[in-house]
């Protein structure tokens, strides 16, 4: 299994990029968002990858973060969702948008992706809602070492979008806090996603307060 590719961008096409690793070119398929985030031809890059094996074809898919990669893999577990549909959802919403839409049960947002019908969107939300908290929490982990590897790149210093973001850390800490208070993971994730939609943002304490207000009994 090829889990990471680090090298130099040879070219970027409509749905893939060619990455040169010491003279070997890896054709890596990516979401539109990921392709837009890549550096220019000739510059260094490092991507997490997932290899799709078929009887007559091998395809390598690339991701700038573990959150994006894990959503891609989870989306593939839903009936009727293949690699193309999974990338379409990530292209339309991005990994954080997919997290929010599924945590909130917002299948309408999922349906906005190219080629995704209402039945498939509803199935995605229904089957993956309970798995959203664990994926959302990945965003707060330490950024992986995607730097120089003497055996692969010699003097190349690959760059990639960092996994850890301030908002991701706040989101994960809020999830942990609400879980410690006894809220179910899916319930906590939904409240946090809604709080972020309402502008809860990057501060952990503010995010927890807003989520608790949303979780408070009405009436």
TrEMBL record:
Keywords: ATP-binding, Cytoplasm, DNA damage, DNA recombination, DNA repair, DNA-binding, Helicase, Hydrolase, Nucleotide-binding
Lineage: superkingdom: Bacteria
Gene3D superfamilies per record: 5' to 3' exonuclease, C-terminal subdomain, DNA helicase RuvA subunit, C-terminal domain, Nucleic acid-binding proteins
Any single GO CC term annotated in Swiss-Prot or TrEMBL for this entry: Holliday junction helicase complex
Notes concerning its domains: Has three domains with a flexible linker between the domains II and III and assumes an 'L' shape. Domain III is highly mobile and contacts RuvB.
Span of domain Holliday junction DNA helicase RuvA C-terminal: 170-216
MF-aspect GO terms: ATP binding; four-way junction DNA binding; four-way junction helicase activity
Compartment(s) where it occurs, according to its Swiss-Prot or TrEMBL record: Cytoplasm
Family named by the database record: Belongs to the RuvA family.
Organism: Lentibacter algarum
Region feature Domain III, mapped onto this chain: 170-219
Stretches for region Domain I: 1-64
Pfam families xref list: HHH_5 (PF14520), RuvA_C (PF07499), RuvA_N (PF01330)
Function: The RuvA-RuvB-RuvC complex processes Holliday junction (HJ) DNA during genetic recombination and DNA repair, while the RuvA-RuvB complex plays an important role in the rescue of blocked DNA replication forks via replication fork reversal (RFR). RuvA specifically binds to HJ cruciform DNA, conferring on it an open structure. The RuvB hexamer acts as an ATP-dependent pump, pulling dsDNA into and through the RuvAB complex. HJ branch migration allows RuvC to scan DNA until it finds its consensus sequence, where it cleaves and resolves the cruciform DNA.
Protein's UniProt name: Holliday junction branch migration complex subunit RuvA
InterPro entries per UniProt: DNA_helicase_Holl-junc_RuvA_I (IPR013849), NA-bd_OB-fold (IPR012340), RuvA (IPR000085), RuvA_2-like (IPR010994), RuvA_C (IPR011114), RuvA_C_sf (IPR036267)
UniProt domain DNA helicase Holliday junction RuvA type: residue ranges: 1-62
One GO BP annotation of this record: DNA recombination
Major subcellular location class: cytoplasm
